[in-house]
Design goal:
Shape: globular
Organism: Taklimakanibacter albus
Bound molecules: phenylalanine, fe (iii) ion
Protein name: Phenylalanine 4-monooxygenase
Order of helices and strands: HHHEHEHHHEEHHEHEHHE
Strand content: 5-15%
Radius of gyration: 18 Å
CATH superfamily: Aromatic amino acid hydroxylase
Keywords: Oxidoreductase
EC number: 1.14.16.1
Length: 283
């Protein structure tokens, strides 16, 4: 992080990935995380994700070069990966997504942060997010989400739309003929949440419903209290293609739902035991 100068950051917040500054220890951290998740995600990650990971050739060797990844990704779905110093402003983020550029943090966590990070690093961004951008439906969905973000900003509806991203792209589950699987990047890049999200009796697992999701607060400091379950990316894409303008209006009159609440109309796949849930408030 230290090698980066302010003047190297472009107006769209991108930089050239400082490939040469990665240390042997940084690459070793990547390899450790990669190997660990490869074991855990067998039988837990959805097939679309595993196919994407394989197709990308994101490997166990070390932190990938974004340009090489982008070559493969662009051929598949028109997406590319651009390097950023960290979180970028909402409008910048949405503009990148709408133009099929995925902003990925370039730096990697320190060895003592193996299991917990407060902000996304290159492992979360590449390993968690990029494989699904190889999938044509998710590739379109995330680009549409970017356009939707620009619109939500204008309409003052960002909190609602952000919940959709949180509960799908970051923490989504998919019920497949083979069983419940992970597709959310926030789960995918976390060893402990990969197991928790699928196997723990504590959290709720509720069928995805667009308006329900956009009303639901979420956890930023603990595992999720509720995971929303889709059956396919096509379902997600279809449910989110209508114009959200009237939906945002309707949402203003509907109360928010707590991160762990079950409400009338929910299609409950599993009602959580609430065991181990934190007392701290939802975001
Ligand atoms: N259809 C949404 C709108 O009109 C945009 C969107 C697409 C949002 C896909 C999320 C995901 O605002
Ligand atoms: Fe993320």
């Amino acid at each position: 992080m230290t090698a980066l100068k302010k003047e190297d950051v472009r107006a769209d917040f991108t930089i050239d990935q400082p490939v040469a500054t990665y240390t042997a220890e940084d690459h070793e951290t990547w390899r450790t995380l990669f190997r660990r998740q490869a074991e855990i995600l067998k039988g837990r990650a959805c097939d679309e994700y595993l196919d994407g990971l394989e197709g990308l050739g994101v490997a166990a060797d070390g932190i990938p070069d974004f340009r090489k990844l982008s070559e493969v990704l662009t051929k598949a779905t028109g997406w590319s990966v651009v390097a950023v110093p960290g979180l970028v402003p909402d409008d910048v983020f949405f503009d990148h997504l709408a133009n099929r550029r995925f902003p990925a943090t370039w730096w990697i966590r320190k060895p003592e942060q193996m299991d917990y990070l407060e902000e996304p690093d290159v492992f979360h961004d590449l390993y968690g997010h990029v494989p699904l951008l190889m999938n044509p439906v998710m590739a379109d969905f995330v680009a549409e989400y970017g356009k939707g973000g620009v619109k939500a900003l204008k309409l003052g509806a960002l909190p609602n739309l952000a919940r959709l991203y949180w509960y799908t792209v970051e923490f989504g589950l998919m019920e497949t003929p083979k069983g419940m699987r992970i597709y959310g990047a926030g789960i995918m890049s976390s060893k402990s949440e990969s197991i928790y999200a699928l196997e723990s009796p504590s959290p709720n697992r509720v069928r995805f419903d667009l308006m329900r999701v956009m009303r639901t607060r979420y956890r930023i400091d603990t595992f999720q209290n509720t995971y929303f379950v889709i059956r396919s990316f096509e379902e997600l894409f279809k449910a989110t293609s209508p114009d959200f303008t009237p939906l945002y209006k309707a949402l203003q009159k509907q109360p928010e739902i707590g991160a762990g609440d079950i409400v009338e109309g929910d299609k409950v796949v599993h009602r959580g035991t609430r065991e181990g849930w934190a007392e701290t408030p939802d975001a």
